[in-house]
Amino acid sequence: MDATHYYNPNGEDILDEKIYGGSPSGFVDFNRSKYRWDSNIYDLMNANTWFPSEVNTSAESKNFSALSDNEQSIYKLTFAQLSFNDSAQEEYLSDFRRLANNRLVKSVLSLQIMQEVNHSKSYAVLLDAAGNSEEVFNLYKYDQALNRKNQRIAEQFARYIDGGSAEKMLLSSMASINLEGIYFLLGFSYIYLLGDKVPGARDMIKFIARDELNTHMPLFGNIFKTIHKENQISAATIDECYNMIRDAVDIELEYGNYLLDSFPIMGTTPELMERTVHNYANNRLKTIGLDPIFEETPETYLQQLVTKHLNMNEVRSNFFESNVSNYAKSSIDLDDF
To answer: Which one, 63, 150, 252, 319, has the greatest CB density within 10 A?
Structure first.
């Protein structure tokens, strides 16, 4: 590795560093940010740091055993898929970070990597408490639908992460927007539907969802918009962004319909799932400055569940180990996303 990768006294000024392209000096200076959103997101991520020990999982085994067979299957297959999402994202972020140029943005990505590892730890803590950790983490070996979803997500991540152009960086950021903004949401809503039956799982998901929706997704939304603004992006590349979110919707609905067909649960229907995923996809497109492409419908019950549980005030903490469970503030300013 060339030493200028770490220190380049002839590199560009910090305020000139772009996300893609250029020659940075090697310094991280939180007092001088080219963008407003990077330091804001970093501060919010840091202020909202949490740990799995803050969630009371002492009754998770008993509560899980009281679920119906269908509910237990939904629980296990949901956490099997969510745990893959965070594992894949941690690895992807490490690769994306190496391609990024702006050192302050790289610092925010470093903090997100830590949070993705924390999510993976939370699944281990929760599933160990439920008594089914090994079974759930090995489900991809036996469940073809789960394996197919994981494989399709991995292929979307891998397609452009070799870098080499602003267009590839943009499409790589789109893969992360899909992960944070599409692939988690039905899983979150399934656990919220179980609700008070499994309060440990519900409260753990509250923390994870808050990270994903209030900082991780805005981070990559801003990265996408910034790369788009700072570079000449072709119409063909934007068309590929639309293709990627169409694929993401197809991936999410394929797995959702499999779960619904195999393990019917609490009034969820294919039509409800489709409306929910289409609404989320349209929202993600709007927030990155692209036009919605799916039929727009009123907010669904599943969306309302996710929104309702972003309120952390009801999280039940472990009395002996907890820190403050409420977040410092709900989200970054709308102007930042």
So the answer is: 252
DSSP structure class, residue 58: T
User: What number of other Cβ atoms are within 10 A of residue 252's Cβ?
Assistant: 26
Please list, residue by residue across 285-312, b when 16 or more beta carbons sit within 10 angstroms of its beta carbon and e when fewer do.
bebbebeeebeeeeebebbebbeebeeb
Reported as a single tens digit per residue, the pLDDT across 4-63 is 888 888 888 888 889 998 888 888 888 888 898 999 999 999 999 999 999 999 999 999
pTM: 0.91
- The answer to whether 183 is a known catalytic residue is no
Out of 20, 42, 123, 140, pick the active-site residue.
123
Q: Which domains does the chain have, with CATH numbers?
A: 62-314+323-330 (1.10.620.20)
CA dist 97 and 71 (Å) reads 38
Q: Rounded distance, CA 149 to CA 137, Å? A: 15
